[in-house]
Amino acid sequence: MIKTIIEFIGLLCIIAVILGYPLMLLWNWLIPELFHLPTISFWQAIGLNILSSILFNHSTIKNN
Fold first, then answer.
1. Residue 31 sits in which domain range?
2. Quick check: is 64 in a domain?
């Protein structure tokens, strides 16, 4: 049971790095130059991923 929990937490960390780091790099490369907005940190990129998944998650919408 504990091994499963540790593996799950490790998997979440890997997913966070896979999703957060490229977003941070793209944001810091494009957005400050195009729109004169500030750069973001890794943790802010993770937060943007979570926020966008909450706002734009279409799996909860059922099409009848």
1. 2-54
2. no
Token pair, residue 64, equals: 């009848």
The structure's pTM equals 0.75
9 in a structural domain: yes
Range 24-61 burial, b when 16+ CB lie within 10 A, else e: beebeeeeeeeeeeeebeeeebbebbeeeeeeeeeeee
Q: CB neighbours of 41 closer than 8 A, spacing ≥ 6?
A: 24
Evaluate whether residue 59 is within a structural domain: no
Count up the domains in the chain and report the number: 1
Q: What is the pLDDT of residues 1-45, one digit of tens each?
A: 999 999 999 999 999 899 999 999 999 999 999 999 999 999 999
